[in-house]
Sequence to fold (615 residues):
Amino acid sequence: MKKIKTRFTNRFYNKLMLLNTGIICVVTLIYGIIAFINAINYERVMHLKTCEDTLNQLHASYHGKQENYTNLMYTFYEDSTNFNAISTLLENDSYSLSALDPFDLQRITMLLSSLCNKDSDIHSIFIYKANTKTLYAYNPGSSIIKMLNSDSPFYQDLAGKDLRRTIHSAVNVSFLENNSTPVFAYGIGGNISTANISFQKKPGSVMVAYNISGLERTLQNRGLQFPARFMILTFDGKVIFDSEKKLSESPDGTEFMYMDKLQNSSGLTEIEKTKYYFSSIKDEKRGYMTLYLVPKNEVDKTFNYFSVVIIIGSVTFIGLSVSLYILSSRLSTKRIGMLEEAMTQIGSNNLSYRIPRSRRTDEFSFIAERFNEMCDELEDKVNKVYIYDLKQKSAELYALQASINPHFLYNTLEAIRGRLAMDGNIDAAEMVVLLSKLYRNQIKGKMFITLREEISQCNIYLELFSIRYDGNFQCSFDLPPEIMKYGIPKNTLQPILENYLVHGIREKNNRVWITGEIHDGVIEITVRDNGRGINPDTLRKIRQSLKEFRETSSTGFGLSNVNERLRIVYGPEFGLSIQSSEETPGTSVTVRIKALFVEELEKHYQAKTGGFTDV
Fold:
């Protein structure tokens, strides 16, 4: 166990994987920390951005009411009849509305009603009469003008203000509707002049009370993920609007007691031992500010959630990396152990031992395949030396008989096959049988054979090479039966196959397709492979050699030789054509011959050559 552990840790491949795993874990940890920090900052920024957008919308909504108040006040002066009615109300010395002309009272009521119709958020309109210190209120729900007593909301504010524009805190105005449910409204007011009294003498004031529900609608559907408090305050701390309606910081419930905490326009502040993110927008001209407060601990809860997710993800990824390292190391150690065992077996003279084949296509399988090929070649060389010694001795004893009797070679090969079969070398024995058949067909005296015989000869040749390449070679035939009866010069297709097996075969996944077709008395046979292909320079030289025509044939069975023999037999319009490309693997050679039977082909050739039969 200790020895296995030492080998496991000392292997270079395992050390390399351990280094890679360590780098991955460190990088994962660093990126996890960066992701954690960025997640915190991103969530904070995104939430505060949502609050900022909502703050801007709320500020714009209230600012719109301020601007709209000016337009409403112009309405009092647009129509002279209405202006005179308002002037009569504010200039007479009677506090009772009954002292007014009924038509003037009706005009004022209709004017106030039209103002309320211009903005659905208007809850009521208050008119303060300075000379009698009387407060009147109009509510669209009751459609009448009421006189209020001095303890009514807004009375003290309107009576004491002498500015052109006033801002009033939100108060409960449900008494105007005889409603027990609290209804809060904030006010915007200002002085009004009459026909005979100017602003400076303040004949009276007009205040528009807006329902806070209009501002509350601004906060709806804003996508706020945390509880945020939005407020509109005057610079002296009066609460115009509070989204949480916490109007209890002051005795009368209308003042915010922590204005000193909000000196900056944004940042972090602490109120009653609770930290808040806050930001504000100030209107120096009107004297108010809009702000939000978000509890810091509420935002940090989400940060903790993200930190847990990132930590768990990082730890999981690191654990997965370590597990994969251990698994990969064990698998590689096992595969390397198979190679070591094979070397040990071969070293002990067990030349028949082979590493079991695997369907994997990794580097270990590649090494194992090359190792087996090396062992095959080594065993083949040993067998060849053994066979060579047998042939040498047989040649010395039967040299004369062998020179005059070719059947001696068949018998000798059969004896070798039997010996190999007895030794258990089935593949080598099969190769001897195929070689014997191939040689027997080669020495036959026929010049022309049927296409069926030529294909059979090629099949034997390919079987021989298939055994040699240990099954890493496949061939398929697709020729119509009607062309198999026609004749062809012997050894036409075999040199094409040999050219591929010598120059084009790859290390694995080799395949050859032999197809044929007949049109208008011409047979075309195509031998196509998926080999390495031919480079452009070599292909150009081969095509040039195929174009050259000589009346006498050369020896050998190269492509040029086959092409010359076909042109001699059939004519210059027949022969070979070749297509190949390095970009698209493989080479395609097409044989073009005339459709003639064997007897017709022999007569045709004898008539053409005058009886000369060497093709």
Remarks:
- DSSP finds 15 helices and 18 strands in the chain.
- Residues 314 and 320 are 10 Å apart (CA to CA).
